[in-house]
Amino acid sequence: MRLSTVILPLERSSFSIEKWRRAEALGFDSAYTYDHLYWLRLKDRPWFGAVPTLTAAALSTSNIRLGTLVTTPNFRHPVPLAKEIISLDDISNGRLDIGVGSGGLGGDASVLGETALTSRERTDRFIEFVRLLDQLLRNEETTFEGTFYSARDARMLPGPLQQPRPPFLVAANSPRGMDVAAKYGQAWITLGSSKRQPEACIDAVSSQLALLNEALVKVNRVSSDLDKVLLNGHLSDERPLESLDAFVDWAGRYGQIGITELVIHWPEPDSPFDTDMKVFEAIASDGLKQL
Looking at the 3D structure of the chain, how many domains does it have? Predict the structure, then answer.
């Protein structure tokens, strides 16, 4: 099992760079950031762009993997996004992962004045988004005509350092979303469950894993082909960052059902992720060792 963190892009680079460096020094496997224009849970706070943030992080670190958690079609087009991914992969010397998801309602979904999509339409768009992004990153030139996106002679030289492309981490919980994860993903992401009791959360994620395995069978892949990433999104009564013992118990329970990477939020004062820094650093240093 691996342990990673999410660093929210709330501060100017002169301050935030130290967080990325500290994340690497603490031994986190990966450090991610959210790819939004702003985030509804902190909509009145400063919020910087994901790609420049990751560029600064890549130039300030050397070993830790970096990525988005997650990038969505809400305001991204696959063609310019693919060019940015290739550039980031180069700047980071092949340390880039790309989390992708279908995108929620509100905020990023309406900021460009788009007509609101139904749940089915958002999934249709997501499938096309991932399909085109995959083609762009694998090929020198791509022409594509879809319902939501088009590309005409889109050239992607020199291509990414990581071949055939940087890993896709696919956030999904519906059957059609699981199909995307099974077909295109090197990892699957879950936020867990909004059920209040920890036991119910474990059962919910176990059910999600069963659905993922069904999708993998359809494309002749096996469960071990994908990493299973759990982002602690503070949706339930689970509080793994209250103490080192609480984390070890939480991590152990999810490890037993097949989760291979846990992601916790970097402490942010005056936010849902206001955590004692000493406890956080103890978890980063010793949490997995105690499993």
Answer: 1
